[in-house]
Write a structure and sequence with these properties.
The protein is flat, with a radius of gyration of 20 Å. With about 180 residues, the protein is mainly α. The chain has one domain: Orthogonal Bundle (Tetracycline Repressor, domain 2), CATH 1.10.357.10. It comes from Salinactinospora qingdaonensis. Keywords: DNA-binding, Transcription, Transcription regulation. This is TetR/AcrR family transcriptional regulator.
Length: about 180
């Protein structure tokens, strides 16, 4: 709270007149973030488009606020906006013919994909010094270039994972005797 007050150029005591605890402040921020995540894709009954739109929107929100990822990843708790999002996702999946148990698992799996992608940059984890890789790691001869292309690689990697995930779910949906579709 002191750091935030310093950033806002106010006294920490001023913040406590609005928020009793840091947890309350983080909850409010998480509420705002969740309220902006788009779950409208489920309204038309197309679960694939619903997941795609939700996952991209969720990923964008978390990527814009990476310090909030651990707090949001801990679950919706009693945060109304997060519960509304979960309700829309679950309802959209069940409405499209997924059994409730699988709908829950798909929502969780999508969250794992999004949170994992937002939590870390794969590309920025490599050193820019070619000497690190040149002699000992011949299969990583271009790894030193990853950091300079990090945004593109991370974005494309997220899209690849999302597409593979959706393709796998489509196969499950088509072959599952449990689904109504």
């Amino acid at each position: 709270m002191r750091k935030l007050a310093q950033e806002l150029d106010v006294r920490a005591a001023s913040l406590y007149s609005h928020y009793r605890t840091k947890e309350e402040l983080l909850t409010d921020i998480a509420q705002e973030m969740a309220a902006g995540i788009d779950v409208s894709g489920f309204e038309a009954g197309d679960w694939r488009q619903g997941i795609r739109l939700w996952a991209r929107s969720y990923f964008a929100a978390l990527s814009a606020h990476p310090n909030m990822v651990p707090f949001i990843a801990s679950g919706p708790g009693r945060r109304d906006a997060a519960l509304r999002m979960a309700d829309a996702v679950h309802g959209g999946l069940v409405g499209a013919g997924w059994p409730a148990r699988l709908a829950t698992m798909i929502g969780a799996s999508t969250k794992y994909l999004v949170v994992g992608a937002a939590l870390h940059s794969f590309s920025r984890g490599f050193d820019a010094d070619i000497r690190v890789y040149r002699d000992r790691y011949p299969n990583l001869s271009q790894a030193h270039r990853l950091a300079e292309h990090a945004a593109e690689i991370d974005h494309d990697s997220f899209e690849l994972a999302l597409t593979a995930f959706l393709d796998g779910l489509s196969h499950l949906y088509e072959t599952s005797g449990e689904s109504a579709g």
